[in-house]
Specification:
mainly alpha; 4 helices; about 280 residues
Length: about 280
Amino acid sequence: MALGFAANAQTSANVAPQVKSTTVVPMQVNTATGAVNAVKSGAANQLKNQFQENKTNAVNQLKAQKDAAKETLRIEAKAAQEKLTQAKERVKVELKNLQASSTVLRQEALKVMATQREEFKVRVEALKQDFTAKRVEQKTELKAQLQVVKDEKKKEIVERVDNNLNELNKRMVEKWSKALVDMDGWLARMANKVGEQAAAGKDVTSVNAAIESAKIAIASAKAAVETQTAKTYPIVVSSEESLKSDVAAVRTMLNEDLKSVRDLAQSAHKSIVNVLTEFNKLLNK
């Protein structure tokens, strides 16, 4: 038994160094591996930290650039807004001056048109007085001419027709004179309203063109009325046999003249209607 124990002890002693030898190598490998891993981990952390730092720097740089760009845009926008505000103020001042100037021009135009209406009235009134004076002379002359007519009834008829023809002319020119004065006054008021629309920034080209056409039409009709007011239509008697033809000739002449003036007065009225139409279009835009 003792020998067996000794033998086992020896055997164990011989085996122990071998076991020790085999366990040292793995520990060295593990140590080396740990060192490598440590180096790798440190390098990875360093790279990670460097990457994070670079990322942070890049983000900060981008943010700084973005903030700088925003600030630049803000400054430029503020400058542009200030310029726009200044431009608006200048436009307001210019518009105000234009409106004031436009108001003055409209008032002057109204005064001119009012003066022209009064002048027209004065001229027509003077022509009517001349007409009355002429008619007194013409009636006297007609009575003298009718001495060749024996039939008293025919004399009375001729004198009545002579008076009626001239009274008809007088009534018609008075009617047209008043109508044209009213048209002229209405047109002046309309021109003032159109001026107000223009000052408000509306395009008044069409209605202004209509107004100018109406002015021309009214002026033409006025001139015709003045000419017609000055006219008289005396019957000139050559003989008792020609009384009918003498009267017919004067009546025809009067009718033709009145028709010419009536056409011009109607044309003036149509031009007024056209102005009203164009103005209503302007308001509905």
